[in-house]
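Help! Submission page says 'invalid entity' but I think these are all valid:
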Amino acid sequence: MSSHPPLDWPDYKSTRLRHPHHIRPLTLTETELTSPRLGDRLLGPHDHDLTAHGAAEPLGERIIVHGQVRDDGGRPVPETLVEVWQANSCGRYRHAGDQHPAPLDPNFEGVGRCLTDREGRYRFITIKPGAYPWGNHPNAWRPQHIHFSVFGRTLTQRLVTQMYFPGDPLFEYDPIFNAVRDPEARERMVCAFDLSTTKPDWALAYRFDIVLCGHDATPFE
Amino acid sequence: MITPAQTVGPYFSIGLPWPDGPDVVPAGTDGAVWLRGRVLDGEREPIPDALIETWQAGPDGRFDTPEFRGFGRCPTDDDGNWAIRTLKPGAAGGQAPHVAVSVFARGLLHHVVTRIYFADEAEANAADPVLTGLDEAARATLVAAREDDGYRFDVRLQGPDETAFFAI
């Protein structure tokens, strides 16, 4: 069973007119086995700290989110760009299209980026995002999540995913989470509470390791 | 055991676009061309919340030239338009000049990947191992038309003239 979700997934209504019907095999070439080196892109000193982008700290539960990016052979993926975006603690994105009647926080943009270190590790400081309603079906709510974008060493490793929090009661109702059919694969999108990284009197911590396909992995469909 | 993909959702534009994302090369670069087009759904409606990423060799056919980023990123506008300013790639590894394209959007649970080839490379295209493996209709979806200042390449996610996408 593939780890990745199918493109055609009727429970998630936006897939209806947007999923291609044919994905063709490709013999990988240098084009797919290379990847941009974005390590020299200018990163600001606070880009990894989503609580440091306003005049004051954002409201909400401050958390540390960290982990390691590896390939499926267990090898760390060093110096690769990790980008995150998320709703604020009330479940509202700083986006004109988000009309959820929950407050915006003037001190929270909800955007972060960093490079993994030599061991493939990354670390963000942020606040825990809120759940929010969406229009997919009556009384639809997204579980709390943080969006992650990772490049990897080859175009084949490019990954955009979402990180969820342990024990969310909304999991069983969410068609995006459940589009991943393999229950074990779904669990790999859920971070782990990490007491050892918690900073006493300051912030709880969660660990989210990201595993990218190897160069010779099975194509996604 | 790899981490599954999830959609970028409707709000990625707060996080993913870069100010210089569409500038694979800066304005004024000798030989710069625009790659541009629209992203359309199965009813030919424009997709205003898609993100295009491109990856390509430089004019020398190499992927490891430090001074050439090779990577472009552009969100679509309200009419589904995207545009990336770059240099036309050279031929590499027995293939015709081409640009890899990744498409992300709300409603795409995993991004999809295709290639741009160039209409004015007919001879190289006729010998390209990827193009020659496709039927004529599919092949036609991958060839960008020449325009005054570059090339036009529309992405059709679905429908009778659906763009040819590849598993990588």
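Support: the input was valid. A stray whitespace character was the problem, and the output above is from the cleaned input. Chain B is about 5% helix and 35% strand.
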